[in-house]
Amino acid sequence: MSTNISGSERGDDLKIDEELAIRFWPSLPTRVGSPQVDMSSSPSASYALGERARCVAAVAGDGDQTVFAVGTQRLKGNNSVHFIEHDRSRNALVKRGSYKHHPEIWDLQPSPTDATLIATMYNPLSVTPDYGGAVWRVPGGGDDQNESKDGSLESVASFNGLTGAARCVRWKVGVGCDPNGPSGTLVTLDENSLKLWELDASPSTTMAVTSSSNLESVDCKSPTSGAWDPHARDLFAVVVGDGVSIFDLRSMTRSTSLIRHHKQNTLNVSYDGKNQHKVVTCGGDGFVKVFDLRNPKSALATKSGHEHAVFHVECNPVYDLLVSCSADGTCKLWRDDFLGAESDAKTNTKRTLSNGGSENNSNSVNSLVATYGESSRLNTVYGVAWSKADPWSFVQLRDDGEVTLNTVPRAEKYRILL
């Protein structure tokens, strides 16, 4: 980001930028993950669950506190949801609370408006092939002030009627989300269907399916993930097999598709809350791809660098950055100049036309900022999540249950702010 300023205005603007830097640059450390990347020498903050885990999500509505929820995956039960907080004074990740959730957890997401509510999807403990899901209330809002770690989540309502591998639940965010209401809108994805639910979390608690779509009838069977469009009231992206299908939930019909852009299965999708036209995907081919929804036939940018499948990608909520994690044991932080990529794509398209269509019009500039962790096949990184309180920090979750807090390198912060 650059700004042309001159004369006496420059001194005032630089003073403002310095104030922003002081305000938004907490003294968080960064772990060196790649020898060619110049990063802070301070160690990252880590927390070991001591159990296998696959899903992590940031907790909203907690002021300036950085809190994350992590669900464990013990096959025989006795699982739990851990709430982990960053203690800046000690630069440490500490357990804020740990609550029993017997079945193994495949997905979770805290409510975007109520820090005491969390939704989970889980494996059954019986012989039935069907999965389960529910919304839970966290005792004390996830703040365990006592030393006891034997608390349990309080069941609010269940997602009844899920069939097969149901591994995705998402609270509604963005346009149409009421930050003050006791209710909430959620989407679940199971083996064959997309379901829209309305939750009333008042004392009379009700959960009802308001609409449903048979995914098998539109070749979207066995979805793996999904995301709400934060800029549209009724659009939801479903990740399945060879691409992403965007559904209009008013009619439960597919409106847009991003198909066969990855050489292997598409694994995750993330909307950019700052730009209504941008969406990012990742896949089993190890690539991260950026798309303009106004022209979804080709990617604006392709980011390569991971050595194995990329399981998760997430756009920064404030700045033009995104982070990805992979089976190669690393997380990568990318610079994501959407407008620049859009301009490059148009330029490359013109070159293609002038050269008789012989040149690929996909922008392949990586814009890699930093790599966190060491490449290894022994420890897959399954999840990443940006902090809701601090846009410069994010966590990564390894399959062995190690949670690590990383930060954007100082040089990149200067580049963005000054």
The assigned structural class equals: mainly beta
Task: Characterize the biggest β-sheet.
Answer: 4 strands, antiparallel
Fraction of residues in β-strands: 35-45%
Overall average pLDDT: 81
Strand order of the largest sheet: 1-28-27-26
SS elements, strand count: 28
Helix content, binned percent:
under 10%
Q: Report the principal-axis shape.
A: globular
List keywords for this structure.
418 residues, mainly beta, four-stranded antiparallel beta sheet, 28 strands, 40% strand, disordered N terminus
Verbal overview:
There is one protein chain. The chain is mainly beta. The chain is built from three helices and 28 strands. The protein has helices at 9-24, 338-354, 410-417; strands at 45-48, 53-58, 67-72, 80-87, 92-100, 105-110, 117-122, 132-137, 154-158, 168-171, 183-189, 193-200, 206-214, 225-228, 235-240, 243-248, 253-259, 266-271, 278-283, 288-292, 301-303, 310-315, 321-326, 331-335, 368-372, 381-386, 393-398, 402-407. The strands form seven sheets. A four-stranded antiparallel beta sheet has the order 1-28-27-26, with no helix packed on it. Strands 2-3-4-5 form a four-stranded antiparallel beta sheet, with no helix packed on it. Strands 6-7-8-9 form a four-stranded antiparallel beta sheet, with no helix packed on it. The longest helix is centred in the C-terminal third of the chain and has 17 residues, at 338-354. The protein is globular, with a radius of gyration of 21 Å. It starts with 8 loop residues before the first helix and ends with a helix.
